[in-house]
């Protein structure tokens, strides 16, 4: 099998590398990910390693899926067993496998940020001087996490937040342990502890994975680096690829030095640079290079455009008056390029903040342009999804966090007094809340509420079985929706929504979850284990793939979520001071500039940039200045349009006019009876 075909000499060199450390440091679109895929395939087909001995760590689960797919297409069953996923899914896999040693039950649950917030809020109640609503829980949680992961700088101003974080950090860890659940940070911390305390397990893992590869290495943090170093210790077969210019997660603890110091810290490391860009047109690349050249402390790479020739089309910059105009402009641009034969899936609209995304989303919706939102706050954050997931989690891994969430949702007569009684009883008897619910009689809960608890417990216990017992001609997802309708969840949604329209939307979320379940189950076996792995996948925000992926839809996403992806046409919106660079970031302008660079380098053929003259901030419309990143690019590298919209060509104008006239005509001519 020829895994080297079509690759340039440097890429081939990387693909042919067999053993020992390898660093591929190269700019955007230079084929780093391509090399990882080919190398994975070649290692397997040339029997350097078996598929199941290879571990590829990617930045998103979607990227992992793509890699497995590309290798699988060429290798068929020889490619089976290859492990690819994010660091979080890697940690999860290790903990599931060695759960006993990690002190966890086989079906331990994973808690997400909102669960953690609830736990923290609860802990805060018992701390003196914590005052109601005095503290921003998100902020404390992130400070606690920084402490746990060793990200917090040693010297820092000590204020009441730090004090609180210090007090709560150990309590928080203890509470998670007591609940038998793991949070996202724990998915990295716990495997490290597990390895430290059980050298035999570490050895097992080391021999399980004899080849390790990491994509987007510039955004690994200290724990992830530790994890890698542990696994590769005996064999040092580690290949990492990355681009220091695309490091955009410093705010989350990613350390650029991981990539820059890699050769120093890994003896006999081979370093390969890739200098040709195969993605973007020469014109787009010129803008990207001009932008990033303003950063200090770079490793300094050149990127030459390699695709056939320059397209002759410059990146474009449009100025709009207000943000509403910008949104309308995005719509008109999509129509414009559609008329030139582009498909909807050719477009990505990229922005810095989710607020911008929301505005653009609603104008696409109004214009009936199908879109998907990749990453970011999405359906996973919807209350309805969280409720249903809590039921599912509870059915497979009983835990206090999800039980408390759903105990009276939809309402079933289990009020605060009952919950209080159960909590006190649990405390007194030193049992957990879930068990306390089983002994409601002893907890002196009234019969009526107690019977509700019994019914709920029975419902939860039977849930997976009942979902899988779907009707002929139907599906597990549809059955799940039906089951929840059966216990009054639909009425609950309608009863708690502000108006019928929003109730309908909420209920739709439930139906979407049903469809996601079906698409996840797909070819998997329809059993409890599959539902279990569905829950894990949902918790890790693994977009479920399947039907969503190949659809012809415009893609909306934040700049952060766009990493590693590419699109024929990129619309980069909101190039303004305070948005990009973002105002909350204080000093790290370089990281913001890298984010701009990431955005620009996603584009293959066309790059359309926009900015507004004024934007709403805290409810007040204010004038805004163009992004400094824009001003840094020499004017001759892009076309700037005066205020307004894209001038249309003669032909396009004629088409527009005649389509308008024919619409008008049909309105004026009375419909035939
Ligand atoms: P990023 O830094 O954005 O993650 P990357 O370095 O991982 O980019 P890839 O996504 O692997 O780059 O490749 C960019 C594009 O170039 C892809 O469309 C890929 O198919 C193409 N490509 C890579 N190498 C070659 C090559 N030797 N010949 C032709 N096309 C190539
Ligand atoms: Mg890549």
From TrEMBL:
Keyword annotations for this protein?
A: ATP-binding, DNA-binding, Helicase, Hydrolase, Isomerase, Nucleotide-binding
GO cellular component terms, semicolon-separated: cytosol
UniProt superkingdom: Bacteria
EC numbers for this chain: 5.6.2.4
Query: Do the record's keywords include ATP-binding?
Result: yes
The UvrD-like helicase C-terminal domain extends over: 282-564
The protein's name is: DNA 3'-5' helicase
């Amino acid at each position: 099998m020829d895994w080297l075909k079509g690759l340039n000499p440097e890429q081939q060199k990387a693909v042919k590398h067999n053993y020992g450390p390898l660093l591929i440091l190269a700019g955007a679109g230079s084929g780093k990910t391509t090399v990882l895929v080919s190398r994975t395939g070649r290692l397997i087909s040339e029997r350097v390693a078996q598929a199941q001995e290879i571990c590829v760590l990617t930045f998103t689960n979607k990227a992992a899926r793509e890699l497995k797919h590309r290798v699988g297409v060429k290798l068929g069953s020889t490619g089976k067993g290859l492990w690819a996923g994010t660091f979080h899914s890697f940690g999860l896999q290790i903990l599931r496998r060695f759960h006993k040693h990690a002190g966890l039950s086989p079906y331990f649950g994973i808690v997400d940020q909102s669960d953690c917030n609830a736990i923290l809020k609860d802990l805060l109640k018992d701390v003196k001087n914590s005052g109601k609503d005095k503290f921003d829980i998100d902020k404390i949680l992130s400070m606690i996490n920084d402490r746990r992961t060793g990200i917090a700088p040693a010297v820092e101003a000590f204020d009441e937040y730090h004090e609180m974080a210090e007090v709560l950090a150990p309590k928080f860890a203890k509470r998670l342990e007591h609940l038998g659940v793991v949070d996202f940070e724990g998915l990295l911390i716990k495997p490290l502890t597990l390895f430290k305390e059980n050298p035999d397990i570490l050895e097992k893992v080391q021999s399980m994975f004899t080849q390790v590869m990491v994509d987007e290495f510039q955004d690994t943090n200290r724990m992830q680096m530790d994890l890698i170093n542990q696994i590769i210790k005996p064999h040092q077969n580690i290949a990492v690829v990355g681009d220091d210019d695309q490091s955009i997660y410093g705010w989350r603890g990613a350390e650029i030095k991981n990539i820059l110091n890699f050769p120093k810290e890994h003896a006999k490391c081979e370093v390969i640079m890739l200098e040709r860009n195969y993605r973007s047109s020469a014109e787009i690349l010129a803008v990207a290079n001009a932008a990033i050249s303003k950063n200090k402390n770079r490793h300094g790479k050149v990127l030459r455009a390699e695709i056939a020739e320059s397209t002759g089309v410059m990146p474009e910059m449009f100025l709009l008056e207000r943000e509403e105009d910008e949104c309308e402009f995005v719509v008109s641009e999509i129509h414009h390029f559609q008329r030139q034969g582009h498909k909807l899936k050719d477009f990505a609209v990229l922005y810095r903040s989710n607020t911008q995304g929301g505005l653009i989303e609603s104008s696409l919706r109004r214009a009936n342009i199908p879109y998907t939102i990749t990453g970011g706050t999405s359906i996973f954050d919807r209350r309805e999804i969280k409720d249903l997931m809590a039921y599912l989690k509870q059915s497979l891994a009983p835990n206090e966090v999800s039980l408390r969430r759903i105990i009276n949702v939809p309402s079933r007569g289990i009020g605060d007094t009952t919950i209080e009684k159960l909590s006190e009883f649990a405390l007194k008897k030193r049992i957990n809340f879930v068990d306390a619910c089983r002994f409601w009689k002893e907890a002196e809960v009234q019969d009526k509420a107690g019977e509700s608890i019994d019914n709920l417990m029975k419902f939860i216990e039977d849930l997976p079985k009942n979902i899988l017992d779907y009707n002929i001609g139907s599906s597990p997802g549809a059955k799940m929706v039906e089951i929840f309708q059966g216990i009054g969840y639909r009425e609950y949604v309608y009863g708690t929504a502000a108006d019928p329209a929003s109730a309908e939307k909420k209920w739709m979320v439930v139906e979407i979850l049903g469809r996601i379940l079906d698409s996840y189950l797909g070819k998997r076996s329809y059993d409890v284990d599959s539902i279990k792995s569905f829950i894990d996948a949902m918790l890790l925000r693994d977009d479920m793939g399947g039907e969503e992926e190949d659809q012809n839809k415009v893609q909306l996403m934040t700049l952060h979520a766009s990493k590693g992806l590419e699109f024929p046409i990129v619309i980069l919106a909101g190039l303004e001071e305070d948005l990009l660079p973002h105002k909350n970031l204080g000093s790290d302008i370089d990281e913001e500039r890298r984010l701009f660079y990431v955005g620009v380098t996603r584009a293959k053929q066309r790059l359309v940039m926009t900015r507004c003259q004024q934007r709403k901030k805290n409810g007040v419309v204010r004038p805004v200045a163009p992004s400094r990143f824009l001003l840094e690019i020499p004017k001759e590298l892009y076309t700037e349009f005066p205020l307004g919209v894209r001038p249309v060509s003669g032909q396009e104008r004629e088409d527009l006019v005649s389509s308008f006239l024919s619409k008008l005509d049909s309105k004026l001519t009375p419909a035939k009876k």
